[in-house]
Amino acid sequence: MNRRKAEEYFFRVLMFISSTIIIMVLLHIIYSILKAGLPHLNWDMISKVPEGGYYFGKGGGILNAIVGSLYVAIGATSLAFAIGLPVALFMNIHLTKWKKVVNGIRFLMDLLCGIPSIVYGAFGFTLMIFFGLRTSLLAGIITVTVFIVPIMIRAIDEVLMTIPRGLFESALSLGSTKSEISYRVFFKQSIAGIITALLLSFGRAIGDAASVLLTTGYTDYIPTSLSQPTATLPLAIFFQLSSPILEVRQRAYASAVILIAIILFISLLARILTYSYKKNKINY
Amino acid sequence: MKFRFFDISRKLRNSIHTSWMIACLSLVLLIPMVLTIGLAIKSFPLLAQHPLLSLLFSSNWKPLSGQFGFYPFILSSIWVTLLALLFSVPICLLTSIHLTQYAKKWVLKIMQPVIDILAGIPSVIYGVWGILVVIPFISDHVAPFLGKSSSGYSILAGSIVLSIMIIPFILNILIELFNNIPVELSEASLSLGATRWQTIKFVVLKKGLPGIISSFGLGMSRAFGETIAVLMVVGNVAKVPTGILQPGYPLPALIANNYGEMMSIPQYDAALMLSAFILFVVVLFFNAGSRLLIIRSGKHN
Fold first, then answer.
1. What ipTM was assigned to the predicted interfaces of this complex?
2. Which superfamily does A54-280 belong to?
3. Would you call A110 an interface residue with chain B, using a CB distance cutoff of 8 Å?
């Protein structure tokens, strides 16, 4: 009897330790990056593009990368939303009778979600060459869109799946067409979840380095058209960190602080929006 | 008359929306096909000249003289992935059991955002953290402790960073899995006089075994394809690694490091595309296997 208790106690301690480790690691990641980057973060970093000799430690900032990342992430998220929302709605409203087809699509989307972003990057690169494009904002946006569309579809799909069938049937019995049910009923009913899905995809798009590494190129200027190359924040961190000069590496840490701030902001925003939109939901 | 017009426009709008939905769906369904065909075509020139097996098991990597042996890269990838899995498996299992079977509500309220944030942190940040923390730790403490010297940029560093990156991913799957195991099963076991822990050991873990295995499969494929974070800490030396303190050079890092030169050396682009193709196939295989396992075990319930 005692041995049973002792065993349980032993494992409970282990469980407690492992949960604590996870919290500690998160805190430690944030703490160590803030500690390394915060002292070197200044207004110039956020408001200026690199000046001459920036990569030797002279003045300037990484505005080009911040703006470039926002361009890529916003462009890709909107494109992916324009493609992903109809697909998710179609799966849950028009294809309700074809369960097997829907499950097949879900399976395929799950597989696509699991494919590493570097593969999408390599694929985007070959597409780019095939169409005779150079590394550019457009190529980056397309690659990232392909990369986040499955994530977006699955995230919206998960939300739509939770909507009760009764709502679909009652809307149908009132004479709504399927497109009206899609956009006026299901879309409105699941708006909180859809916003979370959007922000999740946006976070993925802005944080991913491997897919844009091969397709967007890198410049010190803010792009003014889709055909120009652009810098992105993850790559700015990556390139600055591989510099042998201390000041440049310190700026990489400061850039990491900016990226982490954006990500934390997005996750906070998702929480607040989800909470505030939940109030508009029809409850059963 | 007005009503009729209105009616037609509603129908028109419905059919426009429906065709847009179908167009989007076909576009999305085209992605995997184009992806496979594109990568296959691009890597074909290399496969036409060398047999696949000799490419996979040769350790000669001299792009300039046309020798492409993927063995060091594949081996590094396997080392890093398996080690990362080894580190994260116990933590994930213990934490998920803790959170689903024992934890009070407030613990869940703390842990859920922690897991979400950890999952949302970009890989480049993990890489920075690896350089700031893990590398010095290995070169100053772990290597001397083992009686060796190391710069810190090693397979071990890569796998530590990787293990932390896949923890939230595996953990989320496991939590969902344990939450979906019927409560009646545990209740039956508890009512027979088993302790909480015995119930977990003999009922919950047994019931969830296929799901647990497939969650690790999914974590493994996630780890196999992770690029930037690993690339930053793993050292990138194209040699067959002989120990965990040695630098390695996983496949994703190979693509990311060399894409710049790939158009200037003959067949280099085919070689890099072949490595992307290998990644694609391996990840697809593990992903499909794990997901099929989940689906099949779900059907038996």
1. 0.91
2. MetI-like (1.10.3720.10)
3. yes
